[in-house]
Design goal:
The chain has 292 residues and is of the alpha+beta class. The chain has seven helices and 14 strands. The structure holds flavin-adenine dinucleotide.
């Protein structure tokens, strides 16, 4: 899911080191949906340029193509144009998480959950982490709390950005397959087998969604349901299986902050709603910085 700035999706940068199978990677492509012909024409004009850039960066030809003929076969209503990014894929995040845990265990890395850090003090003798379970000491620390960074580290240019989601119960004869971006990236949906995972709508209440409170609101959840009924699966009955929210970290630049906070503390935050895609690279850079 994006923050509205990532129209046309992003090109694959998955956690390669775990292996495609272990993260359930499927390259069904990513589709950008346009509400008006004018919006479509405007973006379609950039396809030539984007393909040139994609060829330069990843060596693949014709990554972006207009695929308006597919609108009907997916069953969408009111969609006036569609552009495919053939390199975009989807992963199973719980598979990725489990694979990461297994890798950590294999490397003898301890993971302690459920501990809240309230203060970080870098001293000449090392770093002290004040927590709800007492004080932890470490030679070096990497802080990777993303959207919570402003609270813990008082870093200025990171704001929490809540993203609300729902998932439908299984839908018979579901036609859509792939990942889809709608309304300039403010909405994102994908199939998970024969269910739809759908999130977004932060732009309906940007102030209210600038929060670290993990909760859903009727305003946004109702809009997600409305779009399911009117645009995405207008002719199919569906029921909602589950609703939830998560916190992203955004700022004025769509670039992560990976830098020394103090001599023995590095922060790696502000994933801009792309942390699943770029997290492993950010982790590598942060590790290198703290080791140096
Ligand atoms: C609904 C939703 C959909 C998304 N979809 C995509 C997508 O399609 N593609 C993509 O690339 N990215 C997506 N993202 C973004 C992605 O999930 C995040 O960028 C990524 O999870 C960031 O990882 P992280 O480890 O940096 O931070 P997080 O996953 O946010 O982890 C930070 C952790 O720090 C903990 N923490 C915070 N403060 C403290 C403290 N004081 N003490 C101790 N622990 C603390 C938090 O509890 C949390 O567990 C999505 C996000 C959401 C919410």
């Amino acid at each position: 899911m994006g923050d509205g700035k990532n129209a046309l999706g992003w090109i694959k940068a998955t956690p390669q080191n775990l292996g495609d199978k272990n993260i359930g990677f499927k390259q069904h492509g990513g589709f950008e949906l346009f509400n008006t012909k004018a919006q479509f024409d405007n973006c379609n004009e950039s396809v030539f340029y984007l393909n040139k850039k994609a060829k330069e960066y990843i060596g693949r030809k014709n990554v972006y193509t207009s695929v308006n003929s597919k609108i009907k076969s997916f069953g969408f209503k009111t969609v006036k144009g569609m552009i495919l990014n053939s390199e975009e894929g989807q992963i199973d995040t719980s598979k990725m998480f489990n694979s990461l845990l297994q890798l950590a265990q294999k490397e003898n890395i301890s993971i302690l959950n459920g501990i809240e850090i309230s203060k970080i003090t870098d001293t000449k003798k090392g770093v002290e982490l004040q927590s709800n379970l007492g004080v932890f000491k470490s030679e070096k620390v990497v802080v990777a709390v993303n959207g919570f960074a402003k609270e813990l580290l008082k870093i200025k240019d990171v704001e929490p950005a809540r993203a609300q989601v729902l998932i439908t119960k299984p839908i018979q004869n579901l036609k859509l397959k792939g990942t889809f971006h709608y309304d300039e990236g403010f909405y994102y949906f994908r199939n998970i087998d024969n269910r739809i995972l759908f999130g977004g709508g932060r732009n309906l209440d940007l102030k209210g969604e600038t929060t670290t409170q993990i909760a859903v609101t009727p305003k946004i959840q109702n809009q997600l349901e409305t779009l399911l009924k009117t645009v995405i699966i207008p002719n199919q009955k569906f029921e909602i299986g589950h609703r939830w929210a998560g916190i992203m970290g955004v700022g004025t630049e769509k670039k992560p902050i990976i830098k020394h906070y103090s001599p023995n503390v590095v922060c790696a935050v502000r994933m801009g709603g792309m942390g699943v895609a770029i997290g492993s690279l950010v982790g590598k850079e942060a590790a290198k910085l703290i080791a140096d």
